[in-house]
């Protein structure tokens, strides 16, 4: 599996950084450079307009042999989107995005969330992760998705499409069978594991699977 | 206008609380009780399972004459959703929600965001606000929405439906005419005002209008 890990400028804890593997292709997005340097983790590529780290740090990166993709300040996508497009163009099969939720600006968090759909539309798998949350997409096609119990307590299911039909949940504290969920009336918040592996399936719609803890 | 203000347990600054008017119907959701007490703002109703403030504080609320709507801990909606349903049942025409974004759990923030659609479907107007963000919906029907420049620097437009068609922007730094925006490829992040009042319209789709600052 050709996995790319993109580290954006938001809060990223040591726990997430420990998930980075030797064989991953590692990309720092602007402020993510600071995160990775503090953690003394070498990375392959730096992407951004670099308004956070500034030109001196960019020059230093170039000298140290890091591939630098410098973007204009005025553009029609965010730095993190640009990093995802780069990863997809290079054939990423899986993309893990860290430090892309929970900043002051909710529009950025949302745009990053919608990147999961962009990644899926390119035939790859995306995961968005921070200290308290792990987000993935499930596209309703009848197939079963397995969710092993990990470090999170809650598992919430939120429709991203207007509705999700034929939802089956097993191994959940609150199981469902053939349910319809509506985006405007989310009923799937704070479900929990009732088995080591919870399983879900749906026949249509786009579902956001959010594992979280307080 | 019959306006309700719902104060949830998340971070709420003095600036947002100053927007609360004498004639608003004011609801505290669980931890929102603490926010409003600290700010010495009296409220009409308290809603929640009260796992944050605990039973002693609930008893005190009842004694002081506040209407208390105690919810079970196990339920198929969040406390904030329940507060919105209460406001809608009581004929709210406008609902301002504070303290409902930016907590540790992203599923809660998202469920609160989707409440804007629930509020719209009931024929009312919803606004979600915190220190750095103000979120509203625009439903594409050709009508013009006016956005006066206020305390925010950026104005981002994110499709909540799969796409938004026929988008026109005037008075924006980056204007558009008849554009289509896709949810999976958000291009409308960090637009700015180029006039005291920016105007937008679209012919179809559901658009999230996010005013923000860093």
Residue-averaged pLDDT of chain A: 96
Biggest β-sheet of chain A: count, sense, barrel?
A: 10 strands, mixed
Shape, per Cα inertia axes of chain A: elongated
Number of helices of chain A: 5
Q: Label the CATH architecture of the largest domain in chain A.
A: 3-Layer(aba) Sandwich
Termini Cα gap of chain A: 32 Å
Count of beta strands of chain A? 14
List its traits.
10-stranded mixed β-sheet; 35% strand; transferase (chains A, B); 4-stranded antiparallel β-sheet; EC 2.7.6.2 (chains A, B); Rossmann fold; alpha/beta; homodimer; 214 residues; elongated; 2 domains; 5 helices
Can you walk through the features of this model?
Chains A, B: Its EC number is 2.7.6.2. Chains A, B: It comes from Melghirimyces thermohalophilus. Chains A, B: Keywords: ATP-binding, Kinase, Nucleotide-binding, Transferase. Chains A, B: Residues 150-208 form the Thiamin pyrophosphokinase thiamin-binding domain. The structure is a homodimer of 214-residue chains. The first copy, chain A, is built from five helices and 14 strands. With 214 residues, the first copy, chain A, is α/β, with parallel strands linked by helices. Chain A has two domains: 3-131, Rossmann fold (3-Layer(aba) Sandwich); 135-212, Thiamin pyrophosphokinase, catalytic domain (Rossmann fold, 3-Layer(aba) Sandwich), CATH 3.40.50.10240. In chain A, strand 10 (163-170) and strand 11 (176-182) form a beta hairpin. In chain A, helix 4 runs parallel beside helix 5 (106-121). The longest helix of chain A is centred in the middle third of the chain and has 16 residues, at 106-121. The two termini of chain A are 32 Å apart. The mean pLDDT of chain A is 96. The interface between A and B is large, with 45 and 45 residues.
């Amino acid at each position: 599996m050709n996995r790319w890990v993109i580290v954006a400028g938001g809060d990223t804890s040591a726990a997430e950084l420990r998930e980075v593997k030797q064989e991953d292709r590692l990309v720092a997005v602007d402020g993510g450079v600071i995160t990775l340097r503090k953690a003394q983790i070498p990375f392959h590529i730096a992407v951004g307009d670099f308004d956070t780290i500034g030109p001196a740090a960019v020059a230093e990166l170039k000298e140290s042999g890091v591939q630098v993709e410098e973007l204009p300040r005025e553009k029609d996508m965010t730095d993190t989107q640009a990093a995802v497009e780069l990863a997809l163009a290079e054939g990423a099969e899986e993309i893990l995005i860290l430090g892309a939720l929970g900043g002051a600006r909710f529009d950025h968090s949302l745009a990053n969330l919608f990147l999961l759909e962009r990644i899926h539309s390119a035939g790859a798998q995306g995961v968005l992760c921070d200290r308290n949350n792990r987000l993935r997409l499930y596209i309703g096609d009848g197939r079963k998705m397995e969710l092993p119990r990990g470090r999170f307590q809650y598992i919430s299911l939120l429709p991203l499409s207007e509705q999700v039909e034929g939802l089956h949940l097993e191994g959940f504290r609150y199981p469902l069978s053939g349910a319809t969920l509506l985006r405007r009336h989310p009923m799937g918040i704070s479900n929990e594991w009732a088995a080591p592996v919870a399983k879900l399936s749906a026949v249509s719609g786009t579902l956001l699977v959010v594992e979280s803890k307080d």
